[in-house]
Amino acid sequence: MIEVGIIGANGYTGGELIRLLDNHTEAEVTVATSRKFADVPIYKVHPHLRNIDLKFKKIDPSDIEADLVFTATPHGASMNIVPQLIDKGIKVIDLSGDYRFDDLDVYEKWYGLKQENPLESVYGLPEIYRDEIKKAELVANPGCYPTGAILACLPLANEKLIDKVIVDSKSGVSGAGIKPTDITNYPSISDNIIPYLVTSHRHGPEIQEKLGKFCDVGVSFTPHLVPVIRGILTTVHSFPSEDVSSDYVKELYDNFYKGEPFVSVLDVGEIPRLSSVRGSNYCHIGSFDVDENGRLVIVSSIDNLVKGASGQAIHNMNIMFGFNEKESLNNPGLHP
Amino acid sequence: MIEVGIIGANGYTGGELIRLLDNHTEAEVTVATSRKFADVPIYKVHPHLRNIDLKFKKIDPSDIEADLVFTATPHGASMNIVPQLIDKGIKVIDLSGDYRFDDLDVYEKWYGLKQENPLESVYGLPEIYRDEIKKAELVANPGCYPTGAILACLPLANEKLIDKVIVDSKSGVSGAGIKPTDITNYPSISDNIIPYLVTSHRHGPEIQEKLGKFCDVGVSFTPHLVPVIRGILTTVHSFPSEDVSSDYVKELYDNFYKGEPFVSVLDVGEIPRLSSVRGSNYCHIGSFDVDENGRLVIVSSIDNLVKGASGQAIHNMNIMFGFNEKESLNNPGLHP
Amino acid sequence: MIEVGIIGANGYTGGELIRLLDNHTEAEVTVATSRKFADVPIYKVHPHLRNIDLKFKKIDPSDIEADLVFTATPHGASMNIVPQLIDKGIKVIDLSGDYRFDDLDVYEKWYGLKQENPLESVYGLPEIYRDEIKKAELVANPGCYPTGAILACLPLANEKLIDKVIVDSKSGVSGAGIKPTDITNYPSISDNIIPYLVTSHRHGPEIQEKLGKFCDVGVSFTPHLVPVIRGILTTVHSFPSEDVSSDYVKELYDNFYKGEPFVSVLDVGEIPRLSSVRGSNYCHIGSFDVDENGRLVIVSSIDNLVKGASGQAIHNMNIMFGFNEKESLNNPGLHP
Amino acid sequence: MIEVGIIGANGYTGGELIRLLDNHTEAEVTVATSRKFADVPIYKVHPHLRNIDLKFKKIDPSDIEADLVFTATPHGASMNIVPQLIDKGIKVIDLSGDYRFDDLDVYEKWYGLKQENPLESVYGLPEIYRDEIKKAELVANPGCYPTGAILACLPLANEKLIDKVIVDSKSGVSGAGIKPTDITNYPSISDNIIPYLVTSHRHGPEIQEKLGKFCDVGVSFTPHLVPVIRGILTTVHSFPSEDVSSDYVKELYDNFYKGEPFVSVLDVGEIPRLSSVRGSNYCHIGSFDVDENGRLVIVSSIDNLVKGASGQAIHNMNIMFGFNEKESLNNPGLHP
């Protein structure tokens, strides 16, 4: 049984980590920090966790004792916390953007922050970096949009079939975090759809960098907020450089993701939905249709808080510690 | 490992049984029937169950071999299926209304059906009938509204503090079943609230009969359909015959439900929410406020498909077979 | 053409006043104030009003010139603004709670405020006080819950048929105002229902005082927040002192509301819905069912921002100035 | 005052026609047909129209007397009804797809129907065909997706700046019609997003044909169903053949749509939302952002039942009869 800490446990991703780890047979949350809610039982913030006997603690990162710490802290905050943990020999999975980029210039440009404490890290997408994750001290957990987008494009990029993709994503509102804003106020976003940062969301360059390791591709990304609690549906439009059929593409994806525990390649024409993966760590990928103009459409669906954040983080932990990869992540989606 | 059958597995409660049993360590679904979808993989109907390798079968009840069968069949259909199974020595948990009533006249009046095959059964609310369930051959799984309403009223009824209760319930749309109707069509019920069967819902007499065993009480029940997928929130208004305080009531509930694995008695003034129990088998009970007119308000929340149907059915199975009561039901709610 | 001012025009009720008055043939909004958004075009805050050429102004109430001013200001703020306007001879319709109560002690107890500037006012429910409104200088526009609840109970109270009513109300989230909060954040309230101030909402005593002028009745009120943008559905449970039939009650309501332009008395058993009155000034009242315990259920539905706030305010204005009562309020609800 | 008939008045578009025409000063609905609901008051189907005194009639098209008829009939049905009306000298606005295509082969291929009764018609998009509509006997009202998509692309097509566009549309569920289906059942589509007919929706070729008159462009169209009652948000991705700036594009749109009563060209970076046009006949067009890969994004929002169907039909009627174009369509959107 390993001891696990969560820094910044009062947000949605913190809540998800606690929820999912509750049934883990080899890991236990021993400390969950929150400056705002010090000494408050976690169920006051996460009412669904009423039967979990845990209180938020206000504790300095350097005083944490644990085998692994999840830093569910804001961009810019992580870079001041992670090094302290690494120095103590604690393994870290960071859910912020601070350690995701190989190219620090890209990070600093898009996040408007100076990376004060660069460290060696592994990008925590197991479908690409499983071997590196096994040995990592610091895993940078991928962004929510990049998880769905990269998984949807990866087999095509790996075959160098695409030089330009349009990634049109639709995200549930929990992706905006637990802090209420004008746009996430119920009457604003219910019965509505709101595109935002239409050509300037920082997850665009994250997708670009990671796919760019497989082929030379220009990623054009646009996110939309939709009246959904959880989930990201990503519609990828591309014009493959060669003439491909749906069946060919389907086979490509089947082969590429063979054995992956959390990627389900659907049948040709079968449609991924958010409800199929709600609350689960699965990514559904499907559609594979080609139209008269040679456009190929791939669609993926994930739960932004699970495969797009906390579930993937736990998956990474399972890999780092040699646990069964599906431990505590073995439930199907919640539909309806 | 016991073998479990599900008759009528293509509806919401059937899907929930399969979802929840997927992680059960002592029970396995070996047959899931559907006349409409014979030989179709279950994920074509339940897209979230894509990784469960099971096909619907069209099979006569008398040909089923299993240790236990869940009959997720319509009212009126169950009474023709259950006896065949019981005759074969198979234990049955029936999710219809056919075997819930002690008083057949009440059943026949409210369901407009003749009970052709009366059988001895136990009403499957473990919080009342745990000992009887242990020995039962046939358990009649409670209705969704009655589960939330009875649990909210039971400690008061047990103390004979109430002679009249108003049960104002708000149900998610999955309670209306998987078959689309005019009222459950998205544009009809989204952004809307629709009371229905305002004084004539048959769950009223079910609540009445079960509470009536504890005290002489008149139950006035009104259900509302609300734009929610899952969940029933029940607001119980009563005028206790004695002067009670919130703290007294809270203590009453704490004592009554002590040790119950799935009932959480909240603090005074703490508010049950649907999201706290979404996807889980918990029932949250709280509020306990008394107003200037002597009205006491108790509120309960459940997931209508889990504690209100399939989860409670599995709880009953666990009791019947001596399994750990929380087996496969151990997950917290899905919030947000 | 009269000139109309709106103080506090950047909230939901302010937006509704501008939206509805846009087509008024005898009134024109000449000033819309907002301290926060001084000199900002109103469509930056109210994106649906993009074609209305108006900017928010930061202006002292004493500098406003108008025939009528709507004060869409918070409780406690109105009492410092209204007297200045009245002194200048401007008629005022106040949308706060400051001038709604005859009994100042009740106001001060429930609002936790001292009424510094009491003034003579008329309670702006035209169905009761039409004649007084005609001559009023200051109209106190009713609360949203009281509008739906009083209209549902009034004919019964007028006949002295009730001595105790339970008012179980379900409100859309816009009732909580434009300012985002933890509870109104989309992931908190979507797919959820949250009762609040279960026995202590200050609209309870407002309903009590107004119905109390018709008969001696104890009002027990409980509000719930539901995942709906607009609308209040009010379910009134009562035990009439005499044996009444649905048809008798229906006739009572028909007679009482005969000629009222905005109250629709539905058929017996016909169910009011929020979608029927969405965006409109109508109140639908129906159900009229009596159960075996002698409980009578009346249900009403309104749009909380229109009949429950801005539409009713314009109705009052139309009465005060002798305009056609339906002027600018003549549209049906928006369904679906 | 002209007399107006509606054939197929029990669907959503029929309801919208009646709702919107209720305040028209020069047109009156004198007959509303429904085979299914003959002699039923319209409010039994359209509960928001409770105060409109009209009953559905079952009446043969050839027996209708009117100045204009809206045929809100299914594809394939219209072609058998419209000629009878035209023969009687009645002007017709057809809301089906039967008369939208110049190229009958395209129609027959995509609708799987033989056009038995071809007639001369004008495509009822006033922003292109105002002059032709003025003189038309038969107007083919555009599809809902094409309305939003064509308006978003038109100024670019007119300048021959695009040779390929990706149209990624998100539609509210009312677009699927009033008849409930598995996919539109509330628990299926709430909290979900479902792409459908990913590369094979027949509105694709409609957009293609109409834009094709302005420039040689390949249209790649994908629709998604989103948990929204009303509205279509269309995100158009294109790679203009020349280097363009946001400001240049904005000016292009301003000039193109100058004087159009129902098209609002937003500021650069201002985001169209469904809530801004809910219930109204406006189309908002905005964004105009260009990314590092030279991709230009244009976004449009409409209410699919109003500008995308019944409102546009009334706009066409106003043009055909020389009425004020905004008559009965003059209300802003309903936000929140």
Topology:
The structure is a homotetramer of 336-residue chains.
Chain A: E1 2-7, H1 12-21, E2 27-33, E3 56-57, E4 68-71, H2 78-87, E5 91-94, H3 104-111, E6 122-123, H4 126-135, E7 138-140, H5 144-158, E8 164-171, H6 186-189, E9 194-195, H7 203-212, E10 218-225, E11 232-238, H8 246-256, E12 263-268, E13 283-290, E14 296-302, H9 306-320
Parallel strand pairs in A: 1-2, 1-4, 2-3, 4-5, 5-7, 6-7, 8-10, 12-13
Antiparallel strand pairs in A: 8-11, 9-10, 11-14, 13-14
Helix pairs in contact in A: 1-9, 4-9, 5-7
As for the CATH topology of the largest domain in chain A, it is Dihydrodipicolinate Reductase, domain 2
Per DSSP E runs of 2 or more residues, the count of β-strands of chain A stands at 14
Could you give the order of the helices and strands of chain A? Answer: EHEEEHEHEHEHEHEHEEHEEEH
The chain-level structural class of chain A is alpha/beta
In CATH, what is the class of the largest domain in chain A? Alpha Beta
**What is the strand arrangement across the widest sheet of chain A?**
3-2-1-4-5-7-6
Shape of chain A: globular
Percent of residues in helices of chain A = 25-40%
If helices are DSSP runs of H or I spanning 4 or more residues, what is the number of helices of chain A?
A: 9
How much is the radius of gyration of chain A in Å?
19 Å
The overall average pLDDT of chain A, rounded, is 97
Give the end-to-end Cα distance of chain A, rounded to a whole number of Å: 35 Å
Query: What is the name of the CATH superfamily of the largest domain in chain A?
Result: Dihydrodipicolinate Reductase, domain 2
Q: Any guess at the CATH architecture of the largest domain in chain A?
A: 2-Layer Sandwich
Largest sheet: number of strands, sense, barrel closure of chain A: 7 strands, parallel
Q: Count interface residues per chain for the largest interface.
A: A-D, 48 and 47 residues
The quaternary state of the protein chains shown equals homotetramer
